[in-house]
Write a structure and sequence with these properties.
alpha+beta; flat; four-stranded antiparallel sheet; 4 strands
Length: 333
Amino acid sequence: SDLNINLNQKSMKIKTITRSHLQNMEHLEFTNHVLNMAKTANLEKMNPLIAPLEAAYKAENEALNQPRALDGTADLVELDEERDRAFRMFQTMLDARKYEKNKDLVKTARMVQSIVDRYPNLAEANYDKESAMIDNLIDDLNGAEAKAWVTTLGLVEAIKRLDEGNKAFRARTQQRLAKGEASGSVDVKKLRQITDDALNAVLRRMDSLDDLFPSAEVTALIKTYNALVDGKQFLLAKRKATNAAATVRKKNDWGKMLAEHYALFEVEQKLSPGSLSFTGNTMGSKEQRLYELAVADGEKTIWVRLKRKKLVEATADEVAKAKQAQNSKHKSK
């Protein structure tokens, strides 16, 4: 009978893919392909779902194609470079005073340097952090005692230049904020969820049509969709392999870097020479990164960090905070 023929035609399985693993532009491209497939198929019972999918696609596309450079980006780069130059000039002048013949000047220079040392890596900090650090440094140098030291060393003009540079940077930042511009103002994640809901509706309808009203057109649509999924799965598998290889290289580099400091750390910790090795486990990033070391013939491991080119054992509080931050990061994914 016709019913038996239709049931026998039901043989297509719609393949699945974890779309959250796709990068933003890949997700957009994936949606565009499905949209075009649905339009080309022109199936009466699927056509009502095309409009919501198209609207979601357009919203996501607009969000991803908005201007990346906000107003004043070039100005801020130049202003930041100017305050960095001002700070380096101040530091260079201060360094020179440390080599004065007059011992009192040398002592004064060291006192000023002790204030500057409260703000490590100042010129390398991000915009907001650097602004705050310079503000605090200027305040410290304007203190009664420090101001006398700075005057004695002839650094007043250098500090004035740094202060003016920082204020100019802050003023330009305020101008940008006054226009209501801020990075991340569009919630792409939320837009992707709306698009995914529209995609899921199309896929459910596709499966229902194949189940209840199988036809050559529905079969062709599913085959085309499955080919799209196969292509994206290959892309994700390739990326996973590339990332895994990069992780191995990174861990090898960390291991070599840490090995250079084992000898001194083993002496400080009263460990046998050559007893330390890197487990490959880390927590945190950049300067805050902790590394896990194994001790030969020992059951416990040691979490360390690199401070001033030497290994220092991380405190229990530092380890706990790093674990908490790592767990929070994994839960948010």
